Amino acid sequence: MEKRELLYEGKAKRLFATDDENLVISEFKDDLTAFNGLKKSSETGKGALNNKISTELFKLLENSGIKTHFVKMLDDNHMLHTKVKVILIEVIVRNIATGSLSKNLGIPDGTILPFTLVEFDYKNDALGDPKLNDQHALILGLVDYQDELDKLRRMARQVNDILKPYFAEKGLNLVDFKLEFGKDKDGNIILIDEISPDNCRFWDIKSGEKMDKDRFRQGLGGLKVAYEQVLNRILGK
């Protein structure tokens, strides 16, 4: 598969065209950002770890009936996937209160929520990714119908129902995570982007140790080691 012109560069990935108009290549970068890009750094090997972790999790979800954009991992830093029209909604799934949820609503950090919370954020860096309700999303034209918002919530809960017990078996609490979706050439809504410690919070069940990008956000250090441990647990090492 030939890698052609750069289509888009985001905080964590570069997107390239290929010789197939329906397929694109993502290059996973080593860059780290937090607080809407206010804190920046890089960690050699981080991109490759996220690519490998995402590959395993996309395979798991595909085998469990969740349609994704994943085609195959090309090498350590490159993934081949279906070209989509991105839905500019970040779907946040929360099982345990922490981060902005605790800050904004005063729910004590570490509180297990009585049910899985699904939230929408507007995928817009210039506005700071504000919270959305359904009417906002429809007014902005981010989706065409209410049924599509309902499907995003339903798919997000299905992903959580698969990943939460999966990670529990690996000794990790899946605290919360961000999902992105897009429409393929036939208009089907499918899961896209990545699933990695960059956009998931993992806490070790026994120690409570944070095994995700909070190590960078909070200046804890040891980010690459934590990501490696997550991959090793997924691989059963």
Q: How would you explain this protein's 3D organization?
A:
The chain has two domains: 3-82, Phosphorylase Kinase, domain 1, CATH 3.30.200; 85-221, D-amino Acid Aminotransferase, Chain A, domain 1 (2-Layer Sandwich). 30% of the residues lie in helices and 35% in strands. The chain has helices at 46-63, 99-105, 134-139, 146-169, 214-217, 223-235; strands at residues 3-9, 13-18, 23-28, 31-34, 39-42, 70-75, 78-82, 85-86, 89-96, 112-122, 131-132, 172-183, 189-192, 200-204. Strands 8, 9, 10, 11, 12, 13 and 14 form a seven-stranded antiparallel beta sheet that branches. A five-stranded antiparallel beta sheet has the order 1-2-3-7-6. The mean pLDDT is 96.
Strand-residue fraction?
Answer: 25-35%
State the distance separating the first and last CA atoms.
31 Å
**Rounded Rg:** 17 Å
Tell me the number of structural domains. Answer: 2
CATH class of the largest domain: Alpha Beta
Global structural class: alpha+beta
Assembly type of the shown chains?
A: single chain
Number of strands: 14
User: Roughly what percent helix?
Assistant: 25-40%
Number of helices: 6
Largest sheet entry? 7 strands, antiparallel
In the CATH hierarchy, the architecture of the largest domain is 2-Layer Sandwich
Q: Let me know the average pLDDT.
A: 96
Element order: H for helix, E for strand: EEEEEHEEEEHEEHHEEEHH
